[in-house]
């Protein structure tokens, strides 16, 4: 028998040198003769607990009880019973004496008495935590007594340990034995090692060794008494010294007192069954117990119950003990999100609890779960992540963002939901600084080029603002190729007034990146046109921008004259945008319902990142551009005919040249230069001039008025060949004049970017439409009867 037990104990190890764990410092207290050590794994350094029990010889009774405890701990499994990992038995010789030591390796735990002192909970929070722990230990005792027909024999404060997640677990199985109440003829001790139990913890029948009465009692009688001892030690704050102290009920909660008295009944048959103690709804129903219990059975709840629970959880967590929330509730919540049992509102609770952690703990306990959630296909989870990206974005390293997060976030740029597209766009304000140059130039700019012609005007506007904010993270070559064309060719010519205003703000915010030539030839000509814009806010920003860029040119000119080195983009006396440019538009709603329009943020007072994030989360936005324009402007038709409307940004303006999927060349970006392109050949110039020449109309009466006005619809449909200075030109003479000879004029690309792909002009002059020869004229009807045909005979 001894050899069998020794084989069971030493089956997972042959000696201390082979123990794959390092033994650390001991805890000040442990159950019985055991010593409780801290330990770590030699393989991965994970934390463990190591229990050691020593004896002078192999026949020592303590060692026999210890072997019984090892055997029971290996075979009994329950969530509230200490988890067994490894065991070994080592015999050492010191001269003529020998020493045998049993080692048990378990999950990392610490004595309950030490953990209570460490937490230092008071009043209600202490009572709630005790209720949670008692609930867990009662389930373990009930499992042993009612399901396994086992008797623990020594339930007390010393036999309970606490895990890092603050769960209470039962151990000290040295006395544990089967309940043999059905064996009426037996008269010996039912618990062979009952002598290890202190007298103060024994019920009266055990003190008298009345094993016949014990066998006739219910299986839970002995452990119910021990559970009463545990309750006394918890609420009195001291170990039980003698049995009479159990009568002192001053610290016992009133809701628990009746059950406490029934547990300690002098008659074993009348003692309360441990399973019945769990039904005490008055004591065990509190916020902490209910919250943990809901999380434990989360998979059994329906979606409505989950949604309601997680929406209330952030407020409930504020009222629970902070230490318990971070060590117990937070890991449960992270696990449920990671494995898909929790719903999207749980992410809000997770981030709120994570905000109470230190930066290092947040990276270890929360961030890995968040990174995994980015791969989720649940749209609600994706929306929640993007809405709260500012709360965890700074904690992610550049490598994690570039390799694990961005590839999943980028799918939102092409999502069918405008709300998700805009959230994805705004998240780049946090994520873009952590992206590599290859990702910025090769991927992000491609998506932004498409978003700047998005059907939603709010998205077009915020795309321009994002470009202005992330300009500093682009390399110099990309900035030269992208910024001016993105802001002038598209943003300044957008049909949506806030989008044009955003283009002006972005130009001002990035003014230090442009040299004098770019300002004079590319920026100012496009901005000056907007000083007569239909929208007063756009006009105001245009005047400020013109003044700012002129001031930059003037300062550089003065420096050059003074012999100083001219700066490529000197500072302006006019205040520029401080920090980030705020989002011009509020978010789109998830269902596309229109809400109030937010005004464009000015370049002189841009909100901080927090304000931008707040605007991102506010309910929000615009749906259709025409309706928004109507809310900003109420003009007659004649107002639109006086000035040509800016061309639609949906036209191909060269922004995407080189920005096509699957190409990572250096041409990625907005590489069309709308002003300075190579001079075209004389033949091509002649073709362009011919296309500009008016078609003559033969039957036109003499005209005494100016040339016909171009309607608003036609003006809006035109591309880059619109006369941007038409509204400032002098009125035409009253008499009709011949058109200028345009053959000698070379068209600039800014006036006609479509010239390279235009159809060639007709080779013959247009002829007047004659009656019966027109396109709509009917063919002449054939005449009936014999007809005279003039033929010439070759033989005549």
Give a short synopsis of this structure.
The chain has 31 helices and ten strands.
Provide the CATH architecture of the domain at 111-284.
Orthogonal Bundle
Number of helices: 31
CATH topology of the domain at 111-284: Transferase(Phosphotransferase), domain 1
What is the distance, rounded to the nearest whole angstrom, between the alpha carbons of the first and last residues? 144 Å
CATH 4th-level superfamily of the domain at 111-284: Transferase(Phosphotransferase) domain 1
Could you characterize the architecture of this molecule?
Helices cover 43% and strands 7% of the residues. It has 31 helices and ten strands. The strands form three sheets. The chain has a five-stranded antiparallel β-sheet, with helices on one face. Strand 1 and strand 2 (35-41) form a beta hairpin. The model is unreliable at 1-14, 565-578, 589-669, 671-679, 695-759, 762-777 and 781-787 (pLDDT under 50).
Task: Give the key terms.
796 residues; alpha+beta; Phosphorylase Kinase, domain 1; Transferase(Phosphotransferase), domain 1; 5-stranded antiparallel β-sheet; 3-stranded antiparallel β-sheet; 31 helices; elongated; disordered N terminus
Describe the secondary structure blueprint for this structure:
Blueprint: H1 2-9, E1 21-26, E2 35-41, E3 47-55, H2 61-75, E4 84-94, E5 97-106, E6 110-111, H3 112-119, H4 123-147, E7 150-151, E8 160-162, E9 168-170, E10 177-178, H5 204-207, H6 211-216, H7 221-236, H8 257-263, H9 274-277, H10 281-284, H11 287-296, H12 303-319, H13 322-338, H14 345-354, H15 359-365, H16 367-373, H17 379-387, H18 389-392, H19 398-409, H20 418-431, H21 437-451, H22 457-470, H23 476-490, H24 497-509, H25 516-528, H26 536-561, H27 609-617, H28 625-632, H29 637-642, H30 682-692, H31 712-717
Helix pairs in contact: 1-2, 4-7, 4-11, 11-13, 12-14, 13-14, 13-16, 17-20, 20-22, 22-24, 23-24, 24-26, 25-26
């Amino acid at each position: 028998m001894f050899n069998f037990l020794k084989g069971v104990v030493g089956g997972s190890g042959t000696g201390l040198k082979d123990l794959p764990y390092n033994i650390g410092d001991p805890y000040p207290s442990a159950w019985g003769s055991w010593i409780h050590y801290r330990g770590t794994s030699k393989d991965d350094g994970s934390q463990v607990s190591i229990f050691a029990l020593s004896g002078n010889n192999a026949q020592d009774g303590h060692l026999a009880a210890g072997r019984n405890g090892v055997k029971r701990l290996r075979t009994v499994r329950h969530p509230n019973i200490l988890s067994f990992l490894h065991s070994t038995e080592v015999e050492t010789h010191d001269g003529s004496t020998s020493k045998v030591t049993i080692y048990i390796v378990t999950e990392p735990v610490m004595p309950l008495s030490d953990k209570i002192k460490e937490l230092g909970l008071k009043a209600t929070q202490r009572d709630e935590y005790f209720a949670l722990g008692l609930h867990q230990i009662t389930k373990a005792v009930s499992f042993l007594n009612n399901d396994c027909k086992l008797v623990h024999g020594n339930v007390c404060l010393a036999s309970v340990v606490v895990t890092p997640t603050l769960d209470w677990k039962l151990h000290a199985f040295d006395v544990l034995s089967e309940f043999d109440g059905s064996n009426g003829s037996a008269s010996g001790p039912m618990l062979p090692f009952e002598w290890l139990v202190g007298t103060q913890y024994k019920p009266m029948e055990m003190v008298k060794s009345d094993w016949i009465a014990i066998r006739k009692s219910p299986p839970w009688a002995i452990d119910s008494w021990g559970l009463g001892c545990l309750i006394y030690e918890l609420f009195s704050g001291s170990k039980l010294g003698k049995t009479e102290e159990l009568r002192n009920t001053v610290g016992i909660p009133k809701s628990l007192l009746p059950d406490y008295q029934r547990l300690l009944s002098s008659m074993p048959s009348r003692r309360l069954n441990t399973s019945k103690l769990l039904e005490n709804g008055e004591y065990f129903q509190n916020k902490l117990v209910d919250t943990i219990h809901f999380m434990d059975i989360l998979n059994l709840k329906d979606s409505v119950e989950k949604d309601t629970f997680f929406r209330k959880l952030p407020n409930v967590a504020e009222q629970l003990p902070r230490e318990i929330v971070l060590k117990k509730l937070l890991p449960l919540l992270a696990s449920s999100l990671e494995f898909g049992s929790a719903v999207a509102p749980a992410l809000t609770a997770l981030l709120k609890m994570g905000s109470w952690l230190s930066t290092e703990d947040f990276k270890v306990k929360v961030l890995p779960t968040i990174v995994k959630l980015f791969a989720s296909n649940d749209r609600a989870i994706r929306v929640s992540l993007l809405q709260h990206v500012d709360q965890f974005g700074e904690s992610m390293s550049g490598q994690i963002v570039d390799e694990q997060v961005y590839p999943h976030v980028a799918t939102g740029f092409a999502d069918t939901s405008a709300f998700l597209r805009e959230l994805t766009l705004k998240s780049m304000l946090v994520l873009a600084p952590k992206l590599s140059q290859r990702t910025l130039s090769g991927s992000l700019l491609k998506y932004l080029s498409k978003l700047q012609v998005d059907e939603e005007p709010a998205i077009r506007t915020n795309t321009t603002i994002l470009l202005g904010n992330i300009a500093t993270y682009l390399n110099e070559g990309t900035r030269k190729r992208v910024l001016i064309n993105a802001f002038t060719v598209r943003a300044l010519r957008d049909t949506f007034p806030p989008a044009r205003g955003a283009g002006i703000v972005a130009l001002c915010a990035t003014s230090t990146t442009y040299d004098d030539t770019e300002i004079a030839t590319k920026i100012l000509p496009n901005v000056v046109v907007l000083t007569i814009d239909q929208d007063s806010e756009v006009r105001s920003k245009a005047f400020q921008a013109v003044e700012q860029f002129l001031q930059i040119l003037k300062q550089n000119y003065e420096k050059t004259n003074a012999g100083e080195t001219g700066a490529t983009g000197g500072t302006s006396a006019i205040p520029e945008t401080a920090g980030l440019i705020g989002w011009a538009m509020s978010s789109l709603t998830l269902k596309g319902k229109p809400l109030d329009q937010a005004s464009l943020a000015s370049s002189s007072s841009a909100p901080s990142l927090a304000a931008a994030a707040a605007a991102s989360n506010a309910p929000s936005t615009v749906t259709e551009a025409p309706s928004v324009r109507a809310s900003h402007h109420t003009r007659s038709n004649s107002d639109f005919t006086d000035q040509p409307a800016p061309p639609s940004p949906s036209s191909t303006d060269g922004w995407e040249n080189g920005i096509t999927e699957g190409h990572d060349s250096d041409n990625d970006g907005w590489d069309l230069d709308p002003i300075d392109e190579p001079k075209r050949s004389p033949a091509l110039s002649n073709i362009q001039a011919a296309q500009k020449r008016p078609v003559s109309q033969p039957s036109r009466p003499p005209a005494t008025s100016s040339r016909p006005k171009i309607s608003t619809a036609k003006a809006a449909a035109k591309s880059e060949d619109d006369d941007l200075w038409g509204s400032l030109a002098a009125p035409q003479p009253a008499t009709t004049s011949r058109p200028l000879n345009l053959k000698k004029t070379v068209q600039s690309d800014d006036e006609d970017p479509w010239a390279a792909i235009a159809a060639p002009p007709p080779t013959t002059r247009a002829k007047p439409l004659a009656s019966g020869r027109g396109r709509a004229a009917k063919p002449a009807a054939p005449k009936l009867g014999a007809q005279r045909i003039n033929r010439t005979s070759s033989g005549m």
